[in-house]
């Protein structure tokens, strides 16, 4: 079956003053994929995400969304194709969970439109799909980090788009919430949603990805199936540590080897 292309990045370059970040990035995202951008701090993962969301402009190269170049889209038009799910954050006003989720309808109607019964119905259905409908009346600011991340995912669902971009979604979450969030991403992918997410963790990329893109020093150095891309040699190249890849119960895990001085 031919894959439907959603995002195409062609020969992308970006620099901050006196600091080159991205150099010749070529990348694509296809419908139905879960693609993990894996790499160390400062390799350009988050910058690539910001460029795809048109939050900053490339110095060279081109990004296509569906069948148009990105510069032909307004930010509101981009939000009709892509939902961005940030790391969980605090908000200045203590909105309820339902109010936070209904903010996902802004892309449909604009900032000043009054929410309709249809908007509330979509928001409640998104909460049910994520499994947190019991939190609807709770203040967002009183939730745990894991609960906040689930709310932001429900908010993205209310945009009624099929493509989600997540920048380090498990950052700051405890181990249990990390796994629960990854399982939820996998479940939604099985329902036909597309994900592009950044991560620092090879295990997480192995767990839920259909494809892994490895970045280092502003370049893509590997792009392919997780079990082919994530190897001991590549972990050594990217992170400077020794690690073994072990398969148990059909799942592959990355096990770092103790280095000198670690007990």
Overview of the molecule:
32% of the residues lie in helices and 29% in strands. By secondary structure, it is of the alpha/beta class. Helix 5 (117-130) packs across helix 6. The chain is globular and about 55 Å long.
Keyphrases for this structure?
263 residues, six-stranded mixed β-sheet, alpha/beta
Structural class: alpha/beta
Any low-confidence stretches, pLDDT <50, length ≥5? none
Largest sheet report:
6 strands, mixed
The total count of helices amounts to 10
Shape annotation: globular
Order of helices and strands: EEEHEEHEHHHHEHEHEEHHEE
Radius of gyration from the alpha-carbon trace, in angstroms: 19 Å
Name the beta content range: 25-35%
- Determine the mean pLDDT: 90
Strand order of the largest sheet: 6-7-8-3-9-10
Q: How far apart, in Å, are the first and last alpha carbons?
A: 50 Å
The number of distinct β-strands equals 12
Please estimate the helix content. Answer: 25-40%
Nutshell version of this structure?
The chain has 263 residues and is of the alpha/beta class.
Q: Which helices and strands occur, and which strands form pairs?
A:
Layout: E1 5-16, E2 19-30, E3 34-38, H1 45-52, E4 60-65, E5 68-69, H2 75-78, E6 82-85, H3 97-102, H4 106-109, H5 117-130, H6 145-157, E7 163-166, H7 175-190, E8 194-199, H8 202-208, E9 211-216, E10 219-224, H9 226-229, H10 232-239, E11 243-248, E12 251-256
């Amino acid at each position: 079956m031919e894959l439907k292309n959603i995002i195409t990045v062609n020969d992308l370059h970006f620099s901050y003053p006196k600091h080159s970040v991205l150099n010749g990035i070529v990348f694509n995202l296809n419908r139905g994929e879960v693609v993990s951008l894996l790499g160390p701090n400062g390799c350009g993962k988050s910058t690539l995400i910001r460029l795809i969301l048109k939050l900053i402009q490339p110095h060279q190269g081109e990004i296509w969304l569906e069948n148009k170049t990105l510069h032909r889209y307004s930010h509101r038009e981009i939000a009709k194709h892509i939902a961005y799910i940030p790391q969980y954050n605090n908000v200045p006003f203590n909105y309820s969970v339902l109010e936070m989720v209904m903010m996902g309808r802004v892309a449909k109607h604009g900032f000043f439109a009054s929410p309709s019964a249809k908007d509330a119905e979509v928001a409640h259905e998104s909460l049910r799909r994520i499994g947190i409908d019991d939190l609807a009346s709770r203040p967002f600011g009183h939730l745990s980090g894991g609960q906040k991340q689930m709310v932001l995912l429900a908010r993205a669902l209310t945009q009624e788009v099929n493509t989600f971009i997540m920048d380090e979604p498990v950052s700051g979450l405890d181990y249990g919430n990390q796994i629960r969030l990854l399982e939820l991403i996998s479940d939604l992918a099985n329902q036909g949603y597309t994900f592009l997410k950044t991560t620092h963790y090879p295990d997480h990329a192995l767990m839920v990805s259909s494809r892994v893109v490895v970045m280092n020093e502003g370049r893509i150095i590997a792009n392919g199936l997780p079990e082919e891309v994530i190897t001991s040699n590549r972990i050594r190249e990217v992170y400077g540590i020794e690690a073994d890849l072990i398969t148990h119960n059909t799942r592959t895990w990355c096990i770092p080897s103790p280095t000198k001085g670690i007990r």
